[in-house]
Amino acid sequence: MQQQISVITLATTDMECSRRFYAEGFGWKTVFENEFIHFYQMNGLVLGLFREDMMLEDSGRAAFSRSGGYALAHNVPLAEDVAPLMERLVAAGGRIIQPASAPPHGGMRGYVVDPDDHAWEIAWNPAWHIDQQGHVTFGL
Questions:
Q1: Of 24, 26, 35, 57, whose CB has the highest number of CB atoms within 10 Å?
Q2: Which residues have a Cβ under 8 Å from the Cβ of 69 and sit 6 or more positions away?
Q3: 37-41 and 32-33 beta bridge pairing
Q4: Tens digit of pLDDT for each residue in 54-92?
Q5: CATH code at position 49
Q6: Number of domains in the chain
């Protein structure tokens, strides 16, 4: 079977706050949006923001677990790009949970959560190549 992820969908309790975080923080533009769902065309997959009550209904769940045991990542081309992007995300409604720093394994990273507490690692890895379309290649 082909290794791929087609869509990652995040539940949101306030679509306007989430829109601000992703549009003003990351600078991303939707390819489709309505009052219930926003889609962002990424490099090889789609990121969806789905109003939480509608996502619960759609999935047949009564509630979502809030384990926090994941992080999405956005890699940047230069180490000095990490902290300014984190600051933009905070200005757009995010919250820093780990300031930008150089971890023991190398590179530069920090963590920001969006208005619904979804964790985003903002990272620079000197061994990973990012092409013009934003595709990251592991371990080059």
A1: 26
A2: none
A3: antiparallel
A4: 999 999 999 888 777 899 999 999 999 999 999 999 999
A5: 3.10.180.10
A6: 1
Tokens of 98: 């780990």
- CA 132/CA 73 separation, integer angstroms: 18
Q: Are 13 and 64 in contact (CB under 8 A)?
A: no
For residues 117 and 130, the answer to whether their CB atoms sit within 8 Å is no
- Quote the pTM value: 0.91
3-state SS, the chain, equals CCCCCCEEEEEECCHHHHHHHHHHHHCCCCCEECCCEEEEECCCCEEEEEEHHHHHHHHCCCCCCCCCCCCEEEECCCHHHHHHHHHHHHHCCCEEEEEEECCCCCCEEEEEECCCCCEEEEEECCCCEECCCCCEECCC
Q: Residue 90 carries which side chain, given as an amino acid letter?
A: V
Is 30 a member of any domain?
A: yes
Question: Position 128: which residue type?
Answer: W
CB atoms within 10 A of CB 107: 15
